[in-house]
Write a structure and sequence with these properties.
Actin, Chain A, domain 4, 10 strands, flat, 244 residues, Heat Shock Protein 90
């Protein structure tokens, strides 16, 4: 029997063009991903922060972004190689896995940056394509990632509020009642994936968290205007600084 091991090396290159956001003093450049071999095909891009006066803060932002992307790539290539090796034919061919990584800038303020990174593809052997989203929000003065608990007053039951608001919205989207009840229970892990923009907090729910795969293969999201959260926001937290 012929035995071959496919090795997928990820090529990363700078995009020639870059976007400069007029409201901010920094810019976002794209790092392109491009690789194709016998076991996997990878393409797409992810962001890199440039132009911050504080280079240590800039480095922290970029390390966090790169760590997320590299984790996705390592998991994907490992799965691809295992599938290729397991199902390889005598002709030396096997199933090919596909992956695309992309991003959107949700907020590009002077003080804060909020991004959505998207992982979409079809690992070999998977019964259907997979789409996942991950939100990353940064305080650009320090370069530190902002987490959900940073936004709210620790003395409030903010998870109960998020649970109530998200449940109402998702049922309005005709999501599965059973899934919604479970996926929006007031547990931190149900709401940790979020982004910010100028007007709202968006909570992202993964595939099958609050609905069936058939109805929402990429999961669902709920956009919550800040005025609905004013009573539970941390007094000197990120959102209070966002509007200064």
């Amino acid at each position: 029997m012929i035995s071959r091991v496919a090795v997928c090396t990820i090529a990363v290159c700078f995009c020639v063009s870059f976007s400069v956001y007029a409201q901010s003093t920094y810019r976002i450049t794209e790092l392109k991903l491009a690789q194709s071999d016998s076991s996997c095909s990878i393409d797409g891009s992810y962001p890199k922060v440039e132009g911050l006066a504080d280079k240590a803060a800039q480095s922290r932002c970029n390390k966090t972004i790169a760590s997320l992307v590299n984790g996705w790539l390592q998991g994907f290539t490992s799965t691809s190689h295992l599938a290729f090796t397991r199902f390889i034919t005598r002709a030396g061919t096997g199933p090919v896995s596909f992956l695309n990584i992309s991003y959107d800038v949700e907020l590009n303020g002077v003080r804060f940056l909020s991004l959505t990174l998207e992982w979409s593809g079809r690992p070999a052997g998977s019964p259907h394509p997979i789409v996942e989203y991950e939100g990353l929000t940064f305080d650009l003065e320090s370069g530190k990632e902002i987490f959900l608990y940073d936004l709210f007053d620790p003395g409030t039951h903010y998870l109960d509020t998020l649970s109530h608001v998200c449940t109402e919205d998702l049922l309005g989207q005709n999501a599965s009642l059973e899934k919604v009840i479970e996926g929006t229970s007031p547990l931190y892990g149900n709401f940790h994936n979020f982004t910010l923009d100028d007007e709202s907090l968006t909570i992202m729910f993964g595939p099958e968290q609050v609905d069936t795969y058939k109805s929402a293969p990429a999961g669902r999201s709920v956009k919550i205007p800040y005025f609905k959260l004013e009573h539970i926001l941390r007094k000197h937290g990120p959102l209070s600084k966002l509007f200064k």
